[in-house]
Amino acid sequence: MLSNQPEFQNLLLLHSRDRRLQKLKSELEKNPHEQEHIQKQINLEKGSVALALSEWKELEAKNNALENEIISASDKIARLKQQQLEVKKNEEYTALANEITSVSSSQSLLEDEQLQILLKIDDAREIAEIAEGKIALKIADLEKRLTACKEHFHDLKNEISQLEVEVKTAREAVELPILSSYDRTKTVITKPPYIAPIEAQKCSGCNLRVSNDVVSSILVERKLTQCDQCGRIVYVER
User: Where would a tag sit more exposed on the chain, N or C end, judged by fewer CB atoms within 10 A?
Assistant: First the structure.
């Protein structure tokens, strides 16, 4: 039985290491994209917190400005009332009264606007506090994932370097004709496995039925045989 022969066992070992190496290289290639994706999520969450805090601070600044305007209006009204006590002409008194009414009306509008701002400040403060709390936890979790992802990147590089040595050693143990056939198969098949057992007369690589000639080549002639459907090297496990 071909599958029991040492030279074929060496090929299976090479195939196993090859597949592992390809898997690790694929993970290594994807890792920087994963890091970038996580970093974008972190930046987005931080931006959400910054936006909430910014809106809160803008409202606070607007409230302070309104407060100054209201105080200024109160001071002006006080000055105008003082002037009323000092004037002697009715015309001047009436003019000052009209100005006091106008300033008082403006002050009332400012106070109404300030009340609305204060209500918005309460909402903005609550949102900002929630953002700083919940989103901070989410950011911390994302940063842990990013750190783990970076560590995994270095681990992959080390494991790949070690496995490349093991693949080289495994290739040296495979007889040249078999190795050449295996390498040709790898150029034809787009993705592993490159070697597949036959189960119920079907290639487990492509899941299609192989011919009787293929089965005979494996069992009777004990030759290195390829699936007549997909081109993978096939064997029978017994």
Answer: C
- CA 1, distance to chain mean position in Å, is 50
Q: Which helix (H) or strand (E) holds 28?
A: helix 6-86
Distance (Å, whole) CA 105 – CA 108: 5
* Side chain identity, residue 58: E
Q: In the chain, what's the furthest Cα-to-Cα distance?
A: 132
- Here the tokens at position 120 are 């918005």
Estimate to the nearest angstrom the gap between the alpha carbon of 124 and the chain centroid: 28
Amino acid present at 162: Q
Q: What is the pLDDT of residues 4-50, one digit of tens each?
A: 788 999 999 999 999 999 999 999 999 999 999 999 999 988 888 88
Supply 7's token pair: 């030279």
> Looking at residue 3, what is its pLDDT?
63
Q: Which residue has 């996580």 as its token pair? A: 38
